[in-house]
Structure formats: structure tokens, C-alpha cells
Amino acid sequence: MAEVIVSLQHANIYQGDNLILQDVNLSVHKGEFVYLVGKTGAGKSSLLKTLYGDLFLRQGDGMVAGFNLRDVSWKKVPYLRRNLGVVFQDFQLLTDRTVYDNLKFVLKATGWTNQQLMNEKIEDVLDKVGLRAKGFKMPFEMSGGEQQRVDIARALLNSPKLILADEPTGNLDPETSDEIMQLLFYIARDYGTAVIMATHDYRVIQKFPARTVKTERGKVLDNASVF
Ligand SMILES: Nc1ncnc2c1ncn2[C@@H]1O[C@H](COP(=O)(O)OP(=O)(O)OP(=O)(O)O)[C@@H](O)[C@H]1O
User: Fold this and answer.
1) C-beta of 38 in contact with ligand 1 (< 6 A)
2) Residue 82: enclosing H or E segment and its boundaries?
3) Is the whole-model pTM more than 0.90?
4) Which residue from 20, 48, 213 has its CB within 8 A of the most atoms of ligand 1, so it is best to mutate?
């Protein structure tokens, strides 16, 4: 049986005092690709935020990449984040510096110091996302699809066991979306990275089928049908 990367048991997820998702039970294994769907406001982002330590788990049990979510404090969040990569719809790249410097910024912020190892790592992740030799570019010199690839490269820097992607195709045309989906599936399959991707994009789910989890009326439904 593959290693469990995400486990939530009887988890209640709150925004402030509001209970958003109740009695969430979810397991995701190494290399697994999971879609997270649900209406606007149904709690997808709240669930992802709980997994990357932006919302603290107050009730129930949770584990992400060996990290106990009940044990998260602001001081410990960096340790949790080091084991996962987060990809957003709007890329969130630093616009005032090159791709290379965007990636180096994250490595330094997560404790890397050796210049040669940093260079090798940056080359490695750019290669994985198909952007070899594009490190000198500024974000504004790249297309949306290329910027999303940089965002994914950034998420891969610390060899995470899990990638959490919040609508990564939300700003992309269908053809570019397909390329990003192929990349995410390749990362899951070839590197054993579990991927949880929140999306409203049912076209990509149809084209790239995978297990689908749905937030609906305060619950999380596993293996949900979306069509
Ligand atoms: N920072 C916050 N403070 C208080 N309530 C919040 C906060 N963020 C979200 N909420 C509420 O939590 C509920 C779930 O929101 P969430 O963003 O998780 O939904 P979602 O499914 O990701 O929606 P979308 O598809 O629009 O991204 C909503 O009712 C929202 O208003």
C-alpha cells in the first residue's frame, strides 16, 4: 500500500467561528492525483488552507507529509510548508526579478545556502517544467502558461511529497491548460508527488480523469460524480 501523504479524520474546518466543513475524512496516497470540486464558497480553499497551515485544525485529526496538523503553530508552519508545494491561479511570482531569482529567493528563504547546489536545483526544476534556459527571463516577458510553469517549478524546489494547486488553469486558455495538466500528471506519476487540485474547470476533469472529491453543503464527498 502506498504511503499516506494526507490524512484527515473527523476534521471540522472553520473560518473564524463559522463551521465550513464538517466531519471531513480524506486520505491521499503517494503519487495520487485528486481533483477538489464544489460550488463557489463551498469550502475548497478552506480545505486547502488547512492542509498548508494557513488555517489551523481545531477539531479532528490531520496529517500532511508526516506533519501533525493539530500541532501546527505559526512558528511551525515553515516546517510543514517545506514538505509541500502550493500553486495558485495567479502565479504570485515576484515581478521585479528574473525567474532564476524568484526560485533562488524561495531556496534561500527555506534555508539553502550553497550556491552551486542552489544553481543545480534551479536548473533541475526548470528542466522538469520544460523551461530549461529560461531562468534569465522576467515574469512579464513570459506567457501565462510559462508563468504557471515557473509557479510549478517553484513548488517543486524542496522536492515536496504533496502539491496543492488552487485553480491552476483558471487564467489559461484550453490548450495551455492541457499542457499544465499534462505537467501536473507527469509530476504525480514520475516523481510520486501527490497532487490535490481545486478547480471549476470540468473540461480538464473530463479530459484528464482522476479521483474527484467534492465540497457540498458542509461535507466532503469522496469519489464524487461531477457530470
Ligand atoms: N478569511 C475568511 N474569513 C471568514 N470567512 C471566510 C474567509 N475566507 C472564506 N470564508 C468563507 O468560508 C466559506 C468557504 O470559502 P472558500 O473560499 O473555502 O470556498 P471555495 O469553495 O474555495 O470558493 P471559490 O470556488 O470561490 O474559491 C465561504 O462562506 C466564505 O465566505
Assistant:
1) yes
2) none
3) yes
4) 20
